[in-house]
Amino acid sequence: MIILGIEGTAHTFGIGLIDIKKDKVLFNEKVQFKGDEGMDLRKLSEFHVANFHLVLDKLEVFFENEKISFKDIELISFSQGPGLGNSLKIAALVAKTLSLKYKIPIVGVNHIKSHLEIGKFFTKFKDPMFLYVSGVNTQIIAKDEFKNYRVYGETEDIGLGNLIDSFARLLGLGFPGGLAIEERAKLSKNYIPLPFTIKGMNVSFAGLYSNLKKKLNEEYDVNDLCYSLQETCFATMMEVVERAMAYTKKKEFIIVGGVASNKRLSEMAREMCKLRSAKYDSFPREYCVDNGAMIAYQGYVDRKRASLDIKNLKPTPYITIESQI
Ligand code: ATP
Ligand code: FE2
Questions:
Q1: What are 240-268's pLDDT values in tens digits?
Q2: Distance between CA atoms of 202 and 240, rounded to whole angstroms?
Q3: What CA–CA distance (Å, rounded) separates 51 from 54?
Q4: 97 CA from centroid of ligand 1 (Å)
């Protein structure tokens, strides 16, 4: 079974192809809006309208080279939400057009669930605890006793990626700043104590950010601050993840979202899981960030909802991980 997935919830318009029988991603391409100064919604939708065809062009070349065609696609899946209305509309429109033109069943899927499920696809974990850390999101998620996804812990203010990016901006390191902070952190081993906030299984990063800002003005060494920032917030996250794993008795752990590509975070996760006799695994960054392949795989998970009827597939910008779809 080959499934085509279309991602379009925010800055990325992506298309992925997954072959379920071969257990393989066949194709995964995207275009991405670079909103250095934040997301200008009008420019964002103009970007998607002007550029989505570039990904379809690449798909066509792939089809030609691999001697496959839309006849071989059994299912089309698209990101129905959550996300920004204008991006969602474009992804939905492209998906519905392809479904109508080639008479392929279509299903709308939950973008957040797809971030998690693609982790299961690569790691083959059955019922893991997830840490979802992107720019906006910092959530600890797992399936509950009814097999529904549930948020066990989250940030009460800014996301971890957001904290890192904000500090990188102060340092003039550009946006997004995750990799630049990681590189600087590697140059230090001098830990400067920073405040951290844990409330049950929730965290908060705004206080830490203010403290870092203050310390920067007090002329602490920048590499030391980057190192201490990482050590403090990653250890904070590991502590709450560990708490959630003990509470839910989960024995597997995966990190998804852009921050997952941080090597130090991965190292801490591996250590934490070793101490708990739990399994930890990571998977390629390309699939940790927004991409079409994860939407294709979620289409497989939700294949029973697919149909040839496109009428009820309106974008759903405000759904959560706990929503029905
Ligand atoms: P979403 O809509 O899925 O939340 P997003 O744009 O907020 O999307 P992602 O693309 O998943 O998020 O991740 C981007 C974040 O990941 C940025 O905050 C970026 O700084 C962070 N990041 C990327 N690489 C690293 C790294 N090596 N270390 C730490 N953070 C990183
Ligand atoms: Fe995402």
A1: 999 999 999 999 999 999 999 999 999 99
A2: 7
A3: 6
A4: 31
